[in-house]
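1st attempt posting a full record on here, be nice pls
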Amino acid sequence: MPVVRRLLLTAALLTSVAACTRVEGVSSCAYRVTYEGRTYGDVSNVDFTAGERVGTAVLPPCDPEGGDSGQRLAAYAVEGTDPSIALAVGHEPDDLTYVETLSQQ
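the predicted structure (as tokens):
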């Protein structure tokens, strides 16, 4: 396999596994928030009831080199679940996203 073809194949593979994509100038990233040293990811189709507010989570920017420090979101406990396992996050209490722990720092 020629070197150029091998480099193009490698570049294509690396591009396909990127977490963020750009389409017509708009970024799209995986939904990840940080709270108390943990990273959480959204989970679809989960019925949950938000409890009391426990603090503020941060939704990092898609482009960390853009100078944006990310969005601050209200973080709520999920009834019956420890906040170290799952949270409900969002700007408004009636429009929250359920997230579960992916990693801990």
